[in-house]
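Pilot study result, target chain (332 residues):
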Amino acid sequence: MSDMKVGICTLANDRVLDQAIALINSIGEVMGPEFPICIFPYDDQCTRLAAAIQGRPNVQIFQDQSVLDYWENESKRLWDACPNAKKRWSTFTSEPYYRLGMHRRFGAFSGPFDRFLYMDADTLLLQDISPIFKQLDSHDWITYDFQHRDVIHVYNSASEKLLEVFTAEKIDREIFCAGFYAAKRGTFSQAQLDTCLNALQAGEHDILDEMAPDQTILNYWTMRSNLAIYNYALELPSSESTGCCVTSAHFEQRGHQLFDRGNLLTYLHYIGLSSSLFADLCAGENIDFPYRDLFLHYRYLHDPSTQPSFSGKPRPYNRRSLTERILSKLRR
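Predicted structure:
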């Protein structure tokens, strides 16, 4: 694998600047300061992000607009085949597609790395991922999460077609969270995408979860294409596997690492926490949330003097009033 180019991809813009910096810093700590990172731009609002990564030659914001356009168009083609999604979206947005920018992450399949790990911007890397890249020798898709326990936010569980398309065993073992996965460049050919599109047009669109647009697409593409999927959460002995979500309150922090029953976490996902929460914290608001100190450590790893100082008892993140949230946005 020495002649293969490997790297980590993420999706970001100025809105998630603080989280993206923390992720980049955590990758540098674990994988070394020269490890390649490619940021796919959610939209055109990346001016501050571009300034923040100046002086980091290992980090790039993906610039090939033709690749971004290709994957956006493939996503549009797919959702055009899903009348239920379009109907639901029209009840709360005037945009023809919901969160279209999220689909730009698919550019990694045509991106700079032969093998890549995708990580959401609201994650931190905590352990060497070399074994994950090695696992791609024998599998097409690598994940590490427990989404397989709950089909919600992946597929429409109320659809009668779901068990016609996928067996219960396939659903129980192969669905995954799209915040952390490893794959190869060229994983999906045009022929594979067309086959999936034809199946959706023939009626399978009913099984998709339109409110998790990019996640449901990735699950559908991988499972419908019968890719070889490896989930560490299922393959590791239960005594060795770890959780990854910030909602798990039992993780033990030792220094700047997290452990689950004595096992070092591979990554931590601040799933469900708004990007504005991190922006408010970094703007000086004394807001508490799980594993806050770990985030602050990596966010200000290379410029600790700029980290805000807090006094008094922090305010729980889930108890802020609407007025407080509006005022914090005005201050920013």
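One observation from the pilot: The two ends are 46 Å apart (CA to CA). A full batch analysis is planned for the follow-on phase.
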